[in-house]
């Protein structure tokens, strides 16, 4: 998402552009990192990380991390790049979320920010979460979305699984989506010093319940860098991500 346009779509040019943007990432400071480790679920049905028989008692191995990176180039200078990943979370998904800044002097209170989201999984989608007026004789602002859900929009197309696509690229000799040696080296150069510092200082991860969004205080931590979690309730519509024919049939069944 952050790389500059490659010189061409050839594998070497694409991977060179990826390696270049990685090389411009500043060293990660430990104060820009929050780590966590999952504990038992609230209902007690799921154990915590250290309840596993193969995990040593008192282990401080993180199972969650939120960190802020900065890219030292003209396009992204000063823009916080937030990375979050974790195990035993409330949902499994992979996505990139670009959050736009607040409108100065907004006429409404508690307005959530507009966001552009590129979702890799579990259902591929590109959508823009945006504030708009609720239809009708009210002036209440609500969160809506301009949505491109792949399995709905391209219901007639065969969308391969990730490894199916990679195997086909191997057979075709296309290396565009495979990591080159220099990219791998640069990636480890970004994170290895941080990992060593966490181990050396024996930083203790914050505990979070199995099946939740992560450690308490994670939202406050990210807010320091300008990120704001939505201020209004929002639910991803169940219809999005379903093929159009399936949605139409479900509506017909309800009407009948």
TrEMBL record:
Pathway: Carbohydrate degradation; pentose phosphate pathway; D-ribulose 5-phosphate from D-glucose 6-phosphate (oxidative stage): step 1/3. Residues 1-228 form the Glucose-6-phosphate dehydrogenase C-terminal domain. SUPFAM superfamilies: Glyceraldehyde-3-phosphate dehydrogenase-like, C-terminal domain (SSF55347). Signal peptide: none annotated. GO terms for molecular function: glucose-6-phosphate dehydrogenase activity; NADP binding. InterPro entries: G6P_DH, G6P_DH_C. It holds the Pfam family G6PD_C. Transmembrane segments: none annotated. GO terms for cellular component: cytosol. Residues 235-256 are annotated as: Disordered. GO terms for biological process: glucose metabolic process; pentose-phosphate shunt, oxidative branch. Gene3D superfamilies: Dihydrodipicolinate Reductase, domain 2. Its EC number is 1.1.1.49. This is Glucose-6-phosphate 1-dehydrogenase. The gene is ZWF1_3.
């Amino acid at each position: 998402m952050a790389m500059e346009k490659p010189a061409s779509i050839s594998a070497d040019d694409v991977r060179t552009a990826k390696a270049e943007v990685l090389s411009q990432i500043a060293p990660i400071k430990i104060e820009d990192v929050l780590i966590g480790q999952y504990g038992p679920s609230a209902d007690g049905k799921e154990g915590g990380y250290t309840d596993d028989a193969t995990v040593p008692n008192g282990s401080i191995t993180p199972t969650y991390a939120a960190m802020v990176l900065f890219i030292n180039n003209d396009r992204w200078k000063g823009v916080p790049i937030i990375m979050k990943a974790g195990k035993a979370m409330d949902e499994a998904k992979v996505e990139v979320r670009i959050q736009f800044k607040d409108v100065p002097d907004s006429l409404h209170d508690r307005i959530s920010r507009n966001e552009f989201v590129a979702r890799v999984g579990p259902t591929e989608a590109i959508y823009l979460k945006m504030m708009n007026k609720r239809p009708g004789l009210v002036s209440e602002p609500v969160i809506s979305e301009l949505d491109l859900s792949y399995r709905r929009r391209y219901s007639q197309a065969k969308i391969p699984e990730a490894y199916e696509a990679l195997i086909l690229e191997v057979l075709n000799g296309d290396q565009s989506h495979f990591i080159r040696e220099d990219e791998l080296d640069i990636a480890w150069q970004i994170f290895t010093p941080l990992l060593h510092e966490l181990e050396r200082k024996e930083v203790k991860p914050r505990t979070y319940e199995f099946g939740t969004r992560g450690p308490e205080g994670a939202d406050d931590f990210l807010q320091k860098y300008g990120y704001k979690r939505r201020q209004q309730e929002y639910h991803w519509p169940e219809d999005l991500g379903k093929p159009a024919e399936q949605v139409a049939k479900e509506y017909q069944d309800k009407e009948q």
